[in-house]
Design a protein that fits this description.
Blueprint (H helix, E strand, L loop, with lengths): L2 H8 L6 H33 L6 H10 L4 E7 L6 H10 L4 E8 L4 H15 L6 E2 L27 E2 L2 H11 L4 E5 L4 H9 L3 H4 E5 L18 H4 L2 H9 L3 E4 L2 H4 L6 H9 L3 H21 L5 H12 L9 H8 L4 E10 L5 E3 L4 E9 L2 H12 L5
Parallel strand pairs: 1-2, 1-5, 2-3, 3-4, 5-6, 6-7, 7-10
Antiparallel strand pairs: 8-9, 8-10
Helix pairs in contact: 1-2, 4-15, 5-13, 6-7, 7-10, 12-16, 13-14
Bound molecules: calcium ion.
Length: 380
């Protein structure tokens, strides 16, 4: 009840002035007491229901938790660049996703699967099967050192030796369409499409691929982007198949990096998975320096690693593909006819298949906030 209602309730009674005044004072005290309590309760309620961080991600995240989850397969060349590991953590920390399978792409896919499995154990997500993708060699990658002693047969979840078949089976057996989110070159996906073309009717593709109007580092000249150029025929297969294709080309993903306070928040996180991410970043970065500068002392290597890993991330290209699998709110999307040329460019051409391209950011800072929020979430 408001103060105004109390006063108007008294006035029509026509009581003598003294009684009226005394009643007014009494009711006034009662009213202010009730109001203070009511406002206090209201403040407490709103505080407890308010998200810790008032960023769009929280609003989006809390809404999505009650909705049906998005079934995804994550196909990753993790261990080559470090951004796949950031993308994997974003994927696992986003409540929107129902992750059905993770497959490894390119090179020593078994060693890469060990890194994925060990990360899934740390995340407490051994419900997610791991598929070993097409193997190209048995050499180590910079990051595989982190899981060198991990025995893949000890993984408490399922490991599929034939990752390509696992992709096909996961899509074909799913009652719902599945999003195939890919953040590397595409031999596995192209092979799956060759072996079972019907997956295109039941799946959608979301990838970190190409360069349309901008190249690496925001340059105004497009580049032959690595994930396309490294296995051009595979990219051509995926980009000409009759399924829904969505990409973040370098135009959007090539300028994502965490620095300063945003990066520090991630480094300071107590989330075990995020700590493992930074540990991987350190191992990966150190190996890169040792490979390039063989004459450096241990102290010099330590200093170079600390200077980089304690201050900023590298470019986090692959995180944007994960984002596009759940939302396009923070980017400008364009439907563009795209061809993949034999030398690895993704060019706008009337002969191309029309695909959904994230061509520019609407709000890159809000995406960085979302990323930090997700990466620093502590499991409830
Ligand atoms: Ca990648």
């Amino acid at each position: 009840m408001s103060e105004r209602n109390l006063l108007t309730a008294v006035k029509p009674e026509g009581l003598v002035l003294g009684v009226n005044l005394a009643l007014l004072v009494l009711l006034g005290i009662l009213a202010s007491f009730l109001m203070a309590d009511s406002f206090g309760a209201s403040d407490r309620d709103s505080a407890s229901s308010r998200p810790a961080l008032p960023v769009p991600s929280e609003v989006e995240g809390s809404g999505a938790e009650g909705k049906a989850k998005i079934p995804v397969i994550f196909d990753t060349d993790i261990c080559d660049d470090i951004d796949d590991t950031w993308a994997l953590v974003l994927l696992l920390q986003s409540p929107q996703f129902d992750v059905r399978l993770i497959t490894t792409e390119v090179g020593n896919t078994e060693a890469k699967a060990k890194v994925v499995a060990r990360l899934l154990e740390i995340a407490g997500r051994t419900d997610i099967p791991v598929g070993i993708g097409l193997q190209h060699h048995k050499n180590e990658h910079r990051q595989t050192l982190w899981a060198k002693d991990y025995d893949l047969s000890s993984y408490r979840g399922t490991v599929y030796r034939d990752g390509v078949q696992a992709i096909i089976d996961t899509i074909m057996k799913s009652p719902q369409p599945i999003k195939v989110v890919a953040t590397g070159p595409l031999p596995n996906i192209a092979a799956a499409l060759e072996r079972e073309p019907r997956i295109a009717d039941r799946g959608q593709f979301v990838g970190m691929h190409g360069s349309i109007r901008r190249g690496y580092g925001g340059s105004t000249t497009p580049n032959a982007e690595y994930n396309v150029k490294a296995f051009v025929k595979a990219a051509q297969k995926v980009f000409t198949t009759g399924w829904d294709v969505t990409i973040t080309p370098l135009d959007t993903c090539g300028i994502v990096q965490l620095k300063d306070q945003k990066y520090q928040k991630v480094c300071d996180s107590r989330n075990p998975l995020t700590r493992a991410l930074i540990e991987n970043y350190r191992v990966w970065y150190r190996r890169g320096i040792l490979d390039e500068h063989k004459d450096l002392s241990q102290a010099e290597v330590d200093k170079m690693v600390a200077e980089k890993v304690d201050s900023s991330s590298t470019t986090l290209f692959d995180t944007v593909a994960i984002y596009l699998a759940m939302s396009t709110e923070l980017v400008k999307m364009g439907k563009l006819p795209i061809i993949v040329t034999d030398d690895g460019y993704t060019r706008i051409d009337d002969k191309g298949k029309v695909i959904n391209c994230a061509t520019e950011w609407k709000d890159l800072s809000a995406f960085e906030d979302l990323l930090v929020d997700r990466l620093t979430r502590v499991k409830r």
